[in-house]
Amino acid sequence: MNAYAEHAFRHSTIQPDGASLGDTLASGAEQMRKFGLKPKQAIESPDGPPFPIPLVYLWRWYTELSAGLPINGMVMPMVTWESLAAWSHITRNRLEMWEANALIGLGAIRANVQMKKK
User: What is the rounded average pLDDT for all residues in the chain?
Assistant: First the structure.
């Protein structure tokens, strides 16, 4: 799931022109194809790693959780144990320890991707 998450977060980052990185890469690849050009170096695939279907519920939980993370403009929003506990309590989702660690890990991956963008 981590490889998928990193790819998804990176491709959803907004570029200076307002488009996502994924849209920019797809557009560039399509334009090169139309003109019959081949890139000098490999272009990152917009598809990325396959999504681990058995973990779709965990990805859904992460998107719910991350929508409520506080943003203060100084640091990247991070999933904390406190935010995870509050979300779990409100949604009445009882988490296994590995699920909690996975959700915190997804938050760290997202923050790292966003920090690289800056």
Answer: 84
Asked if 51 and 32 count as a contact pair (C-beta separation under 8 A), the reply is no
Contact 89, 81 (CB under 8 A): no
pLDDT of 81 higher than 90: yes
Closest CA to 105 of 87, 82, 79, 68: 79
Percent of the chain with pLDDT over 90: 35
Are the beta carbons of 20 and 13 closer than 8 angstroms? Answer: yes
Contact predicate 88/94, CB 8 Å: yes
For residue 60 the two structure tokens come to 């859904």
Residue 118, pLDDT above cutoff 60? no
**Tokens 């998804």 -> residue:** 8
Question: Three-state SS string across 18-54, please?
Answer: CCEHHHHHHHHHHHHHHCCCCCCCCCCCCCCCCCCHH
Tokens linked to 46: 């917009």
